[in-house]
Input
Amino acid sequence: MLVLGAGLVGLASAWLLQRRGHPVVLVDPAIDGPPPAGGGSWAALGVLMAQVFHRSSGRGWRLRQRSHALWPQWLDALEAEGHAVARRAGLLLLASGDAELARQQRLAAERQRRGVSLGLWSPERLRELRPQLPAAALGGLHSPGDGQLDPGQAMAALLASARAGGLTCLPEAASRLERTGQGAGGGWRLIGSAGSSVEAPWLVLCTGVATAALLESLGHSLPMEPVLGQALELELNGQPAWSAPDSGWPGAVAWRGINLVPRPDLPGGRRLWLGATLEPGCRPNPEALSDLRGWGEAGLDWLGSATVTRHWQGQRCRPCQQPAPVLEVLEPGLVVASGHYRNGVLLAPATAEWVASRITTGVGA
Ligand SMILES: Cc1cc2nc3c(=O)[nH]c(=O)nc-3n(C[C@H](O)[C@H](O)[C@H](O)COP(=O)(O)OP(=O)(O)OC[C@H]3O[C@@H](n4cnc5c(N)ncnc54)[C@H](O)[C@@H]3O)c2cc1C
Output
């Protein structure tokens, strides 16, 4: 099995395939090297939005529900092997307008019918958390089952665990892909940027924004476009509201599309992550960064006086002609698991399971 791309999706797929007994070669110049320019997984905040998804049926819903069930199992398994990944439960979506508030109320009622508990937080309830939350918030939808994990730690854990299980790593870029016409799946040969040559019956493309060009070299047109995201790490001047044991802090908080993620586990215990901007293309926009820094004009003094300790950016891969993500077998032995756009961290386990099921059952061989 050749898995191309060692972002979260490729690592998750390689890890699961390895555990299910398939020999895997994971190919990516970023293995053991610096994060790739534009790689989505290194930039992600790791917010997991499954239960608050606006739809209640279809593929997107099923993938989210599956990942929601799998992530805790995966993290427990990794932790049992000694690979800890920081994670926190809880997500609060704040409403900035009447339409958003009405949507939240409808969603809470719908999820209630499915036995999923989402709490509607009144303005009075939010007031108890002031001045930490934006005064303009009209209400909020709290999901105790959603939350956040550290994507960098999750990637390191998956790689270490898969390596211990016998994963072969090729730290090169795939510079050429060829059909060999041998083997049940048709057969593939990969030529690496340092000249390595590897053959396998299956080729799994988890190469994010590079996927479209690789597919084009094989005669497939599957356009995808980059959408840049900037993010910030801030250090607060004083003790954060969430540091008190009985603070009642809701977890990650989303306001006007920007997530605030408490990171008490980072050095000093007073840091948070803020992100991410949504900018079509690859070039960062200073205005979007300024809006991000103010948490969507939240007008909060405690946030304004915090110090920026890190600023980073990455690219999400958005499919142009179909919904995210692209999970397809394009020809015998050629699997595409890419284009996860804004939810690749959440969807990595369900994607890996989909990839493994294609290969185990031979669908596409
Ligand atoms: C700022 C930001 C914040 C985000 N926040 C969240 C969030 O909170 N929650 C969430 O679920 N999602 C979030 N996302 C989205 C998420 O990061 C992506 O959907 C996810 O990381 C996609 O993972 P991937 O493995 O498909 O791609 P990537 O992480 O981009 O990995 C692709 C890999 O392919 C490799 N590659 C490319 N070309 C080749 C080649 N020729 N040969 C070999 N390897 C190659 C690259 O080196 C790279 O390592 C965020 C994204 C951004 C940018």
The chain has a mean pLDDT of 95. The first helix runs from residue 8 to 19. Residues 208 and 281 are 14 Å apart (CA to CA). The first strand starts at residue 2 and ends at 4.
